[in-house]
Design goal:
With 540 residues, the protein is an alpha+beta fold. The chain has 4 domains: 92-177, Pdz3 Domain (Roll), CATH 2.30.42.10; 183-325 and 332-387, 2-enoyl-CoA Hydratase, Chain A, domain 1; 391-440 and 488-519, no CATH class; 445-486. The chain is built from 16 helices and 23 strands.
């Protein structure tokens, strides 16, 4: 009898478990089948392949290849990558307090946090670290940047190259606090200006502290700058919105194929101020949590959004623990703003990104009945063209040409200070000559198509008959690219100014420059000062 009872219970458990698997994933059998096939294949390759293989490398390749067919945010993390993610979310880590670029023979200092261990040791933007302790960077096969990390108060000797000289410095590592609000200031016309650079665990508390201080100093309107903010913790996005939005208001909600991931995120606390006029600044590098804040304030008609269309990341990820201290960060749902729009700009199919067609955008309505649309990031209420970056500009930035020229310029102009520096056309012309000397080649999609045509013509033996036409086409395209370079002079002027000022006076100097000369901030202040226009934009 006991055996029969156990059998009945076991059968019931199996039935319930099987039903759970069926409702959770109706293709569970197919998953198990494919895992078994892969396991056998992996074993046979490792045991029988003609050359020696590294099982770990082989598996990493398989994992990465599998995930490439999904979106770029679904990734596999080893222990170090998990630690890096924790640092990004916490805003605190033990290190030197500098952004770096890893090169094959050196580590380049891209930016330095004021009063950080790197700053105290005398490191400068543009320095190239050649040796860390006894290890030559050029001989180190792994990520040399990891060598800069260590226990608090531990010392390391660095050998570096600065412009034309080589020197040694001793650096003491320490705890680095990456502020979510690196800058805030009371501007003229009683405008409070707050820069929020990332959504770490302290983001909302830092915004609240800045907001309260600015109001004490007399701020009667607020500019919240989310430009170049890549996002972070969703909970902090809700809490930042809560500064301006009353308790119990939906800020965002998520939809998933799995019911338990469908959630609504509403404000939990009493708002600090539901009446103060607000302008939110965004650009194409404002993503994820930045889009939740800007999108919710726009949908609720709580603030005017100014700048250029945001990045368009409407996907939510969640880390899932795996074996041996590793994790998978998996996209589990899409998030939506209060009006019901998803701002995801791209669809992903077989590893390829497909931008949504504007004709397929869906119209939604804000609280006051204004029209907003899904499918392509948050579109500003007031668009400022100066914030848009062409593919040419993005390529120049990616190849560090702005950064390299700024370093060269400051190094070659001894005695240059923030007070004495003035941007002029001569500097812009020198920059254009600089990128020519660096053999900068901007490859357009047209260039790629011409190469494809050339290859096809060669294969089909038509090249000789169309060669002269191809040469003429290339020459015409080259002239168009030169014209494009000329058209971007104003953008290059802005980016070069920022890079030179940063080298002379840290990020703080750049933010101060924005408040004096920034077109987007000027537009924001002008809009906030014009109360009638502000209300009209928001539909009041």
């Amino acid at each position: 009898m006991i055996k029969r009872i156990k059998l009945v219970v076991l059968t019931a458990i199996i039935a319930v478990t099987s039903y759970g698997f069926t409702t959770y994933k109706n293709d569970f059998f197919e998953i198990a089948k494919q895992i078994e096939i892969f396991t056998n294949l992996y074993k046979e390759v490792n045991m029988n392949y003609v050359d020696e293989v590294n099982p770990a490398d082989l598996m990493n390749t398989a994992i990465e290849a599998m995930l490439e067919d999904l979106d770029p945010y679904t990734v596999y993390w080893n222990e170090q990558e998990i630690q890096n993610a924790r640092i990004r979310n916490s805003g605190n880590y033990t290190g030197i307090g500098a952004d770096i670029i890893s090169k094959s023979d050196a580590i380049l200092i891209k930016n330095i946090i004021k009063a950080s261990p790197a700053d105290k040791a005398g490191l400068k933007i543009g320095d190239e670290i050649l040796k860390i302790g006894d290890i030559q960077v050029k001989d180190y096969n792994e990520d040399a940047g990891e060598l800069l990390k260590g226990a608090p108060d531990s010392e390391v000797v660095l050998e570096l190259k600065r412009h034309t000289t080589t020197k040694k410095i001793t650096l003491k590592r320490g705890v680095v606090n990456l502020k979510a609000v690196p800058f805030y200031k009371l501007l003229e016309d009683n405008t409070g200006y707050i820069v929020l650079s990332q959504f770490t665990r302290s983001a909302s508390s830092e915004v609240i502290e800045a907001f309260q201080d600015l109001k004490t100093k007399g701020a009667t309107q607020i500019v919240l700058d989310l430009r170049n903010n890549p996002g972070g913790l969703l909970s902090e996005a809700v809490n930042v919105s809560n500064v301006f939005i009353e308790k119990g208001t939906t800020v965002t909600f998520t939809k998933s194929a799995i019911e338990k991931y469908n959630q609504t995120y509403a404000t939990q606390n009493k708002a600090l101020d539901t009446e103060i006029p607000v302008a939110v600044l965004i650009n194409e590098n404002s993503a994820s949590a930045s889009e939740i804040v800007s999108g919710s304030l726009q949908d609720l008609d709580r603030g005017v959004v100014i700048g250029s269309r945001s990045f368009g990341k409407g996907l939510v990820q969640r880390p899932k623990k795996l074996n041996y201290g590793t994790q998978a960060k998996i996209t589990i749902s899409r998030y939506y703003t209060p009006s019901g729009r998803c701002i995801q700009a791209l669809d992903y199919l077989n590893g390829k990104s497909i931008r949504k067609n504007k004709d397929g955008y869906t119209e939604f309505k804000t609280k006051n009945g204004r029209s907003v649309y899904d499918g392509g990031g948050v579109r500003p209420d007031i668009e400022v063209d100066v914030e848009k970056e062409s593919e040419l500009v993005k390529d120049v930035i990616k190849k560090n040409l702005i950064f390299d020229f700024a370093n060269t310029y400051v190094n070659e102009n001894e005695g240059l200070t923030l007070e004495s520096f003035k941007m002029n056309t001569s500097i812009i012309n020198d920059f254009k000559k600089f990128i020519q000397k660096r053999d900068f080649e901007f490859e357009t999609k047209t260039d790629q198509k011409i190469k494809e045509l050339e290859q096809m013509a060669t294969t089909e033996k038509f090249l000789k008959s169309i060669e002269s036409s191809l040469v003429e086409l290339k020459e015409t395209l080259q002239k168009e690219k030169e014209n494009l370079l000329e058209e971007e002079s104003e953008t290059f002027q802005r980016l070069l100014t920022e890079a030179i000022i940063r080298k002379l006076g840290y990020d703080e100097a750049v933010y101060n420059y924005y408040t004096r000369e920034g077109e987007v901030i000027k537009q924001a202040i002008q809009t906030l000062n014009d109360k009638a226009k502000y209300k009209e934009i928001l539909g009041f």
